[in-house]
Amino acid sequence: MVDTIAIIESDRIERMSMLNADTSFLLLEEGRKTEALDVFTYAGGGAVNTSVALSRLGFDTSILVKLGRDTRADFLLTRLSDEGVSTRWVIRDADAPTGASVIVSSHDRNAAVFTFRGANTLLSPGDLTASAFAVDLVYISSLSNRSADCFPTIVEKAKANGALVAVNAGVRQLSVRSGTFLESLKKIDILAINRREAEALVPGLVAQFGEGGPTPPLEAGEQPPPLLARGLLGGGYEMSLPAFFKALHSLGTTYVMLTDGLGGAFVSENDTLIYCPAADTTVASTTGAGDAMASTFAAFIALRQPIDVALRAATINASCVVAYIDTQTGLMRREALDARVNANSRLRIRKWRMQPSRIANENTAVKG
Question: What Pfam family is a match, any one (predicted)?
Fold first, then answer.
């Protein structure tokens, strides 16, 4: 995607928040020009953000995407080359233009995004060159429309080459193709999703595993992370976090990372549930935070780092990304990120042991 980002002062654009839902709206006055602090153009999109993140972390990185034959594509290819990302698997479509988005950043900088997906939607099985999958790590960003139909084939090709498979699927893919997605979990090693995406999976999981589930027994005065206390709500169904993670693991995936914005992030592996709070930072824009979290966690798992280290590294890298208006300026290089992970003891890791009927508290805080 080519992102055009408009930064608007909060007093120049109205915001309406719903009282009974976690939803708010930016209101644009019809027929009126709204003054912006500035307007920028950047390279973006999940695959581009991820490839830049992995390249900066020291990986030999290639990208497989579909672009148009236009100036947007030329801009993206130059940006990728500058970051040391190989574009040998890029496909150029003669008819469809390259994807683009317009981002309105105001108030708490949780931006509103207008998206034109263009050639992004037109990936076909013939575009999936077999040799592109002969790598250590295959990271699959969100796919939509016809491209999403290729998802099982992409996973199959990756596993056939013995790659570690990491997936950061979008909410539309999980909502419309949840059955196909859940069937592919047996070949997915790392699944990274946010709360909204997780809730899109709830109806399909409830159909197989039932509603509700165990909740964590808390010690007197212990305050659970908000999402652990609340659980997931999707399609009129409720599912506790322990039940949600257990269901995904039973379908085959090894690691599940679930992010909740300022509410922090969870990672589950087997019978272990780990939580890391969000890092303190000044937020310029939340766009790209999820890509930073997922790609950094996958990178550290590929490097055989412990999951608590991987989660802390992902949290720190994402906090650096949201300090900038675009999705890539804040992405850290490996040496600098390692130093921050080793020096940062304020991110208090909490860990629980999951059991079939309950979660047993193993320890409440681990300082790094």
Answer: PfkB
- Give me the half-sphere count of Cα atoms (radius 13 Å) on the Cβ side of residue 147: 21
- Mean pLDDT value across residues 137-143: 96
Q: 42 Cβ partners below 8 Å, 6+ apart?
A: 2, 3, 5, 326, 327, 328
Q: What is the pTM of this model?
A: 0.90
Using the 8-state DSSP alphabet, how is residue 368 labeled? -
Q: Secondary structure of 141-178 in the HEC alphabet?
A: CCCCHHHHHHHHHHHHHHHHCCCEEEECCCHHHHHHCH
Residue 93 or residue 172, greater confidence: 93
DSSP code of residue 109: S
**CB–CB of 191/269 below 8 Å?**
no
* Distance separating alpha carbons of residues 60 and 54, to the nearest angstrom: 8
Question: What is the maximum alpha-carbon separation in the chain?
Answer: 64
Q: What are phi and psi of 33, to 5 degrees?
A: -80, 135
Pairing of strands 100-105, 112-116: antiparallel
Nearest to 262 by CA among 227, 215, 300, 223: 227
Q: Where are the domains of the chain?
A: 45-97+118-366
The pLDDT tens digits of the residues spanning 82-118 come to 999 999 999 999 989 999 999 887 766 666 889 999 9
Token pair for residue 310? 């991987």
**Percent of the chain as helix, strand, coil, to the nearest 5:** 40, 25, 40
| 357, two tokens | 């009927």
Structure tokens at 49: 């953000």
Alpha carbon separation from 230 to 132, 235, 239, 279 (Å, rounded): 42, 16, 9, 21
Strands, E, within the chain: which ranges?
A: 2-7, 14-17, 24-27, 38-43, 66-68, 91-93, 100-105, 112-116, 137-140, 164-167, 190-194, 232-234, 237-239, 255-259, 265-269, 272-276, 349-354, 359-366
- DSSP letter string over 169-215? --HHHHHHSHHHHHHHGGG-SEEEEEHHHHHHHHHHHHHHH-SB---
